[in-house]
């Protein structure tokens, strides 16, 4: 099932199909007389007397082919509310009836610029499906026709919303793919295709990574028959040579835990242990599609964590790209090893204005925050506040968690510079972030987003119907739009 949006230059003289109209929070329809017939106006007026006006959306079936939808706009409505209304309306679309839907932008009375754009954006995000492996595909298509002389969406804004949707959907597609399809070799190829949008792509394979000394990353993937990679994506959209904004993602395409094997129950969900990298890739595609006026770089470490004759063992000691040594006490604490090398490499090579890394890093963050907030850890208050504000605006919420030198003793090792887990217990997410912070060598502003509870949803959310969420693409795009463009 999919939705096609058409922007009409003029309104039809007569509506024989479904129409979406916008009203105030009291469902006052006096201003809608010009859009519906007098009999329809009287019919709806009578029904409104006994309707639940606390709802956001009401619908009235005029006949078998026509339904009038009234969408209520609260006084202090936000852009995220507009998106949620669009997503809610998607639940009312009947794909079985071959009829169009018309959205009347003239009926909108809201101070939000591009209200209709946000409404349709929410609808599109909710319409996403991942069904490429179903033998019987549902090819039903519904057309939404937007008309009106007021509250028009400019062509530039249409393209901006479309780019954000494509970036989010690409991230969701990557997370949804099974591990036998999207292993590191295939993942690197798919990223390389993004060259056609103007991104500069560099793929570092195992030979190059060994030469660079990225032994922390390579150790995670050495038990797999698949390759391990570091991939960089550069977008140069600024007119000057300003320092880039850097985004780093964990790309563990499947995580068995390695020799420290995970329990069998729910291991199938570990296909989404590369969701942090998918967010970075989706963001970079979005920036390229909308021709963002900034310089940005995305860096992802792609590995598969498998048990095998050549797999990394508990007790191994590796030397990271930074030169610091790490004792591997648990091979299932592998994401931080991938990110350690990727973070140091990004800082050293690109000298960014800031770095934000994303990872499905710890189960402990789900214990702390559930599926409502991602955990935010940072060495910089300004960057933290910018991220939290951006997250609030797009309803991809963040909660800042502590970092402190007192946590360092929990990851200090007797045999190496540090160990990859805290054996004492407790503060699992914080000690993981504390570990990562050691690989930011030059005091670059840095934030770590632990998205383990947000990247995948069993039950669905406001803007997704379950499965991969694409969490972080819209958040980071909003950060860039509001603070850096």
Strand order of the largest sheet: 7-8-10-9-13-17-14-15
CATH homologous superfamily designation of the largest domain: Zn peptidases
Low-pLDDT residue intervals, each spanning 5 or more residues: none
Largest sheet: 8 strands, mixed
The global form is elongated
Helix content: 25-40%
CATH class of the largest domain: Alpha Beta
Radius of gyration: 25 Å
CA(first)-CA(last) distance: 35 Å
List the helices and strands and how they pair.
Blueprint (H helix, E strand, L loop, with lengths): L1 E6 L10 E7 L13 H11 L8 E5 L5 E7 L5 H12 L10 E4 L10 H12 L14 E7 L7 H22 L7 H9 L7 E5 L1 H7 L2 H7 L7 E8 L8 E11 L19 H15 L5 E11 L11 E3 L5 E3 L7 H16 L3 E6 L4 H6 L4 E5 L2 H14 L3 E3 L17 E2 L8 H10 L8 E5 L5 E2 L9 E2 L4 H11 L2
Parallel strand pairs: 1-6, 2-4, 2-5, 5-6, 9-10, 9-13, 12-16, 13-17, 14-15
Antiparallel strand pairs: 3-4, 7-8, 8-10, 11-12, 14-17, 18-19
Please tell me about this protein's structure.
This protein has 485 residues and is α/β, with parallel strands linked by helices. The protein folds into two domains: 2-153, 3-Layer(aba) Sandwich (Leucine Aminopeptidase, subunit E, domain 1); 161-483, Zn peptidases (Aminopeptidase). The chain contains 13 helices and 19 strands. The chain has an eight-stranded mixed beta sheet with strand order 7-8-10-9-13-17-14-15, sandwiched between helices. It has a six-stranded mixed beta sheet with strand order 1-6-5-2-4-3, with helices on one face. Strands 11-12-16 form a three-stranded mixed beta sheet, covered by helices on one side. Helix 2 (79-90) crosses helix 3 (115-126), helix 3 packs parallel to helix 4 and helix 4 runs antiparallel to helix 8. The longest helix is centred in the middle third of the chain and has 22 residues, at 155-176. The two termini are 35 Å apart. The model has no long low-confidence stretch (mean pLDDT 95).
